[in-house]
Write a structure and sequence with these properties.
This protein is α/β, with parallel strands linked by helices and 323 residues long. Strands 1-2-3-4-5 form a 5-stranded mixed β-sheet, sandwiched between helices. A hairpin with a 5-residue loop joins strand 1 and strand 2. InterPro entries: ABC-3C_CTD12. This is ABC-three component systems C-terminal domain-containing protein.
């Protein structure tokens, strides 16, 4: 399964610090002192005692902990970047001083950056040379796992309340798209084999009901995506792909409900397709070379009646694109 992306780069520094404190209350204990500006101008959090479960419940650390949060407003930064190395180097003098004063046994740095083992070795060597008993860098992957583990903390993320018409998790669909890409590449077939009864589905009626324009339907869905629908169907119906089919249906169900609930915030359904595409394509690293499949899969969902309404009773607040 793909790891969840909580878009921590969208937080500001204060919000990221509050997130770190909430996680540390779980890992270390209730005695966390939140981040405050020290005499050197830096912002540190503190804890003194035996940790609840850090680094593990079997072997928790004990002593004086100093916490730092290093936030960056960019989604693809790494702990191995030179700017991060510079940020850590600026803290060395303070860490050495606090250790000499007996109030820094363990130094924890939280960063919304990708964590790399190679960088860790050098950082740990440099930090331990300052006298601390242990040093730890908690990267974005570990923070995401903590948010998976603690739904109450996850619900406090301020970007869950952003002004987008609706927010959905693109991870399941990104995983399906990746598997679908491998399936079609390995099979070598992409020609359209019509197993669909287009007349039975009465697409012109459904398009009018949902507000899909004739131009978008004919030039985008029919011309560009429909030739691949049979391959999508074969992929989802193959027993070997049951796990991906389940992810597909979970994602489709989430989208269907949210589209119905927020339909009035959009004009034509064409705009909903564009909005969903933009949300999913943010998974740039995972979907490199596969983005064309985003539209194909979304259009297949619509054509297969997994999203969109089929009768007026489902939602009467509809914009007719070609009215």
């Amino acid at each position: 399964m793909l790891p969840r992306d909580y878009r921590l780069h969208e937080l500001n520094e204060d919000e990221f610090e509050r997130l770190v404190v909430r996680i540390c209350v779980r890992w270390l204990g209730e005695g966390i002192t939140p981040f405050a500006r020290g005499r050197d101008g830096g912002r540190d959090g503190k804890f003194h005692g035996t940790a609840n479960s850090f680094p593990s419940t079997a072997s928790p650390l004990s002593g004086h902990f100093v916490l730092q949060a290093k936030h960056v407003a960019a989604p693809n930064k790494s702990c191995s970047d030179l700017d991060f190395a510079g940020l850590l180097a600026k803290e060395h003098e303070k860490v050495k001083r606090l250790n000499g004063e007996g109030i820094c046994d363990h130094y924890l740095v939280f960063a919304n950056r990708k964590y790399t083992g190679g960088a860790d070795e050098k950082y740990m060597k440099d930090l331990k040379a300052l006298g601390v008993t242990s040093a730890h860098i908690i990267g974005v992957e570990r923070l995401h796992l903590a948010l998976d583990d603690y739904p109450d903390i996850r619900e406090t993320l301020p970007n869950l309340l952003d002004p987008s018409p609706f927010r959905f998790n693109p991870d399941d669909l990104a995983e399906v798209i990746g598997a679908l890409h491998s399936y079609t590449t390995d099979d070598g077939q992409s020609a359209f084999e019509s197993a669909f009864d287009f007349e039975k589905l009465k697409m012109p009626f459904k398009n009018k009901l949902n507000g899909v324009s004739d131009e978008y339907y004919s030039q985008v869905i029919v011309a560009q995506s429909m030739p691949h629908f049979e391959r999508v169907a074969q992929f989802l119906q193959n027993p070997r792909n049951d796990e991906f089919a389940a992810l597909y249906h979970d994602a489709a169900d989430e989208l269907k409900q949210k589209i119905i609930a927020k339909r009035a915030q959009f004009g034509a359904f064409d705009d909903i397709f564009l909005f969903m595409y933009e949300q999913i394509q943010q998974k740039r690293d995972v979907l490199k070379g596969k983005r064309r499949l985003i539209s194909i899969l979304l259009h297949y969902m619509y054509f297969n009646c997994d999203i969109g309404i089929k009768q007026l009773e489902e939602n009467e607040d509809v914009v007719h694109a070609d009215a």
